[in-house]
Every structure is written in C-alpha cells, then in structure tokens.
# Entry
Amino acid sequence: MPTPTLTQSIVITLIQCLLVVIFVFVVVPLTVFAERKVLGHLQMRLGSTRIASGHTGLSGFLNRGMWKMGKVPVLSYWRGIPGLLADVVKLIIKEDIIPDKADRFVFFLAPSISMVAAVVVFAAISFVPGTFFTFPTWFPLVGGLPVSGGIADINVGLLWILGVATVGVYGIVLAGWSSNSKYPLLGGLRSAAQMVSYEVPLALSLLAPVVLAASLNFTEMATRMAVGMPIWALVPQVIGFLLYLTCGFAETNRLPFDMPEAENELVAGFHTEYSGMKFGLFYLAEYINMTVVSALASAFFLGGPWLLPFGLQGLLNPYLPGFLSWFGEPHAIFFVAKIIFLLFTYIWVRGTIPRYRYDQIMAVGWKYLIPLALVNLLLAAAIRCFAV
Amino acid sequence: MEHLIQTIGRNMFAIFGVMALAGAVLMIASRSAVHSVLGFLFAMLSIAGCFLSLEAEFLGMAQILVYAGGIVVLFLFVVMLVEMSKKREGEVFQLQSRYAVLTVAVGAAAFLAVFRKTIFGAASPEALVLRPDLAKGLDVAHQNAQAVSRGLFADYLLPFEILSVILLVALVGAVVLAKTERV
# Structure
C-alpha cells in the first residue's frame, strides 16, 4: 500500500469532511421530519401530511382503502416530506433581519460558532471500522489510496469531542447578548448556567468507560467496550448510560431541559431576534448535537459502535446463514441503527415528559447527577482494579 | 504544492503563535468588554493550536476544555451582567495603563532572566525527561495522557496536591465571602 504524500492526505481529509457534511445534511432533515411524525402519532394525530397529493399513486389508493375500512391511514408516512424542502427554501430566501441596536459582528458570529462547534466534533468519531473505501487506481491524484472511517483518530479523541462541544455554549450566550433584547439575554444566561453545570456530570459519566477501557482514543475505546468487558462492567455502564443520556438532553437543550428557549416564558429564548438562515444554523446545530450525543452513547454505552449491543453478536453468529455473514462482523450499519434508535428516544422523551422548572434543573444537576456520577466512577474504578 | 504544504506544516507553531498574539491585542484594545472576552477566547484556542502543533494533544485539549469551555464562559457570564447598561469606555487606555506597562516590563525582564538560557542558549543534547524510569515502556508521542499523568501523579505528586489544596482554600474563601454578605 503506497504511503500518501501530504497533499494527497489533505485531499483525502477534505473528501472525508465532505462526506460528513453530506451525512449531516441527510440525517438532520430526516430527524426533523421524523420528529413531526412521531410527535404527531404520540399525540394521536397524523403529523405533517400536507403538500404531497393524497389521492394518486399507490399510497393514495391504499389510503382510500383504509379510510373505507374505517381506519386512519398510516401508510402515508412519506407524505409531508416535500414540506421539508419548502422549509429549507423558506429559511434560505427569508429576509435576514438584524435588530437596530444589535452588536452586528457578534450577532453574525454567534450562529457560526454554534454550527462550527457542532460539526467539528465529528472529526474524532469513526463511523466505519478500519478502511471505509479505497479509491480506484484511475482516480486522479488519490488513486489507489484508502479512506479510513474516521477523519482524525487522535489519541485524545474523547477530550476533543468534549472540548469542542463546550465551545458551542458561546453560540447561545453570545446570541442572547448581541440581540440587545431582554428575552434573548435571559435565555442566554439561563443556558450558560445550565450547560456549564451539566457539562460536569456529562464528563464524569463518560469517565467510567474511559476507566474501563484505559484509553481516550475513540477507536480503541469503542473496541474495548465491544469485546472483552467483564460481566460486572454492565452495572456502571447502565447507570452511566442513563446519566449520560440525561445530561445529553440538557446539553443539547432538548425538551425536558429546554430552558434557553422555554417558549411560554421567554418567547423563543436566545434566538428570538434571529431570522432566516441564521436561525437555520441554530436549528441545524441543535439536531447535529443530538446526533453527536447519540453517536457517543451508542459507541461507549451500547456495546461499541459497530456491533450488536450486549454481546448478542456472539450468541447470534453460529446461526447466521451464509449470505448474512457480514452481519456477524463489525459494520457501520449497526452504528447508524443505534444512532437512529437514540434519536427516536429523543423525540419519544420530548413527547412524554413535561419541562422542568429552572431551579429544579439546577437542583437535579448539582445535587443528584454529580454525586451519582462520582459513585458510578468509583464503581467503574473498582471493577477495573479487581475484575479486569 | 507539496513543498508549500510542507512549509506551512513546519511553521504551524509560528502561525498559531501570531494568532494568539492577535487575540491578545484584540482583548486589550477593544472597547466593549464582550469583544475583549472574544479576543481572549481566540487567544486561548490559538494556544491550544500551538500545543497541537507540538504534538502535545492532551495539553491542547485540556487547554480548550478548561479555558475555552470553563473559565472564559464564566468571564463572559460576568461581563454580560456588568455590561447591561451598555456604557462603552470612552478611552482605550486608562489611568492604570502606566502602572500596567511598568508591571509588564518588570515581568518581562524577570522572565527573560530566567529563560535566557533556554531561549538563546544552545539546545540541550538530549530531551528533558523528568525521571527516565517513569517513562519506561511509554510511547510519549502516542500516549500523551499517560505521560502527563505519570509526571503529575508520580514525579510531582506533592506539589500537585499542595496546588489543589490552595485552590480549595480559594474556593472555600469565595463561598465564605459570598455567604457573610447575605447574613
């Protein structure tokens, strides 16, 4: 295998970045669509069904059949997808309003910080174990070179993820300040306090897998979490998973903890004054952050990213027929499936649990989650010391 | 092309250093306190870049995590509350600036005196290793975190613990000050 020159490796990295951006722009709209649909069905309504024609084509025919049988047509899941396109077009061509007294530079900077901090996190996540694909030899400049499944598999990948994710706070705080308006400022302040306090239990809950795997590298941790863990490691992992998911909800400002934009108290919180694509960037950043939190949870708590969780692979493998043999090996499809499941959990929780009061959020974070995370870390350390 | 990229790669430290200085200048010279904090943030991130270009990934990430993620956020928090009145400073340089210049001059002289040999003297024939027996079996370039932790928790355990006690004292003192005002 030829070693790539510096130019070639930069070109390969740029291609990987492009793939990540494509992934993001496929996942985010689909999550938004799924959110509308799932929330609708959780609340006994249909979700968005507009724009697609209801009476033509196969699904129109089937739906009419279901109406005739006296049932609500559920076969029209894809309807409403054109509405997403309309949303995107609206965000892009809408007038971009900047308030008169706003600090123009910071007002412009805030959504960019949010978006960049959300996307850059993907640098340390490997989606595919080993090599993703190899360029064919006729390809100009980079022919015959392998493209690995992650952009930068640095030895402190987890710290990179945590560190860059914390920079995302600035987007929200600065947006609240630069709008020069009361409600956004309150939203920004609240979120600064909330995110800074929930970062502590988030990092502590991620330390348990670090201790168990004895590494900070994403691939190495993922591999150790998938194979060779003692059965006792399940206990700190389950507690850690619940802790991590709770803190992840708080960090991404999703519904049980969506204090920064509690709409019945603060209009729309930090992005009240934003419109057009600047608002769109905040919106994108929120969903990208959800994807990142789901990816980390599936990598470190659900039995490694590229395998079935809880060692089911070992039980299943002897019975696999030949054409399904890829199912027994590490595969990116498991990673994507876990991410999708966790994104569904996000929506599920949003439709189920009402919003906390602000003082309750802080009390839960400081009085319960942090001590629990510390105890969990101690447990993980004991298991690491005696059982591994 | 290849040559250009290699040159840029070799000079990454200088590039990030200049960026950090630019951030520091922005911090001092801007009239709005929030812009100052932004300049500080930029300088801190650039310093993390300096660490990364020296292959000290752990230190770089710790820099981002502690300074950018924690300390500067709290600065911003305070500055935002103070600046509610939106009163901007009329002058960039104020009364204290001559004392500040004096302090910086003394500090720079002391720094130069201490590090004169390091900066201008000949390079040491071998890399500085704290205790060679601790670094045994460790690939420092790829096991950054382990190397730092061995330094902290084996070589310099006592100073490290004393530092943490000092920080704890500051913490308790802050709590006491905040509480007595209310009673």
